[in-house]
Amino acid sequence: MVYAASRGDVPVRLGPSVKNVPDYGPSTMSVECYRDPVQFELEREKVLTKSWLVACRTEQIPNPGDWHSYEGHGETVVMVRQPDGSVAAFHNVCMHRGPSFVPEWSGCGARRFTCPYHGWVYDTTGKLVGLPERQDFSEEHLRDVRAPAVAAEEWGGFVWINMAGPGNCVSLREWIGEEILADLGQFKMEDMVLHDLIEWDVPVSYKAIVDGFNEIYHTIELHHVSPEFVRSARDTSFIILDRDLHTEQGPRPTNYMCFVPRPDTRDQLAEDWDHHKYAICHYVVFPNTVFNCNPEHIQVFNPIPIDVDRTKFLTWQLIYPGDRNDPEYEKYFQRMSKHWEGLKVVVGEDIGIYQQLKRTKRSSAYQQHILSERECKLAHYHEQMAKLISS
Ligand code: FES
Ligand SMILES: [Fe+2]
């Protein structure tokens, strides 16, 4: 039987008692943040290497010694399942002379990793455990050498990493925050399976892609949604989960939620404000993880910065597992596959806009954005990024 998410005890997010647009108001913002290489370097230093980032699915490294790689904003990291079930992560940089010492992107059952250049040997936590012709080196130079550790935790069936390193950042759960843990947690992503993962090479900033998921305004023109959807979407609730940005353990940014009533279930919603059943539920975990949830399936949009104006844009499709010999499940599977094909077309429309943004990204005429009050999550996101890089 396929699980269907339902609200349970989590707060009502839609309805007459809920304020659906925060007191943020219309605003404007400069567009330098999308193209300034100096700002990108600051983001690398102060945000991207201090944030919890989605790195792979738990199911991609099920057994001890299984590993998977992450690459983004110039960093290369390997996550390895440990014998005790935890995940260790480390920078994939040989401490001898610098190449990646785990050449393959993923694999299973590793007990050691040997650098292909001169044969330095590392354990599955990234610690140097041996090297040829050791007598020629200074023992002092070799003391406690390891590929720098990266913090790794699991939630929602994903392995997340934080390059600040273990003990140097807030926990993943604190980063995501109680409200999203409870609300998004209802979907039980840890029980879901990866149906498909697609990757686009996009010629704009990762933040321009996050922007597209922080508003629904563009769906009218770009995605040609139905008039019923447009009417229904006017009742969307936008939520900015404001909190103190700084803690002793490091930054802890504000995240965002958004609930879009589905036009086909308006009547049910009016009787029972169960947003998990009757709305599209949307969560943005700063800085680049976006969850788009429907009762039967979830997409995770993950624009990984490569450079100031280049992004590896991943979309993960998750569905509930089952036996395809069971006719009920097979019907569900076919329904999900059909929906996924349609959704890829929609994302393709977004990619089309990024191509148009590529044409203007250096234009002298492109100076500012004029934002509506319903684009407040987008405005708040950039305001928060500016605060983080200036602190
Ligand atoms: S560079 Fe890795 S062993 Fe020399
Ligand atoms: Fe879109």
TrEMBL record:
Coiled coil: none
GO molecular function: 2 iron, 2 sulfur cluster binding; iron ion binding; oxidoreductase activity
Cross-referenced Gene3D superfamilies: Naphthalene 1,2-dioxygenase Alpha Subunit, Chain A, domain 1 (3.90.380.10), Rieske [2Fe-2S] iron-sulphur domain (2.102.10.10)
Every Rieske domain range: 52-161
InterPro entries tied to this protein: Rieske_2Fe-2S (IPR017941), Rieske_2Fe-2S_sf (IPR036922), Ring_hydroxy_dOase_asu_C_dom (IPR015879), Rng_hydr_dOase-A (IPR001663)
SUPFAM superfamilies attached to this UniProt entry: Bet v1-like, ISP domain
UniProt xrefs under PROSITE patterns: RIESKE
Pfam families per UniProt: Rieske, Ring_hydroxyl_A
UniProt cofactor(s): Fe cation
Record key words, sorted: 2Fe-2S, Iron, Iron-sulfur, Metal-binding, Oxidoreductase
Protein name in the entry: Unannotated protein
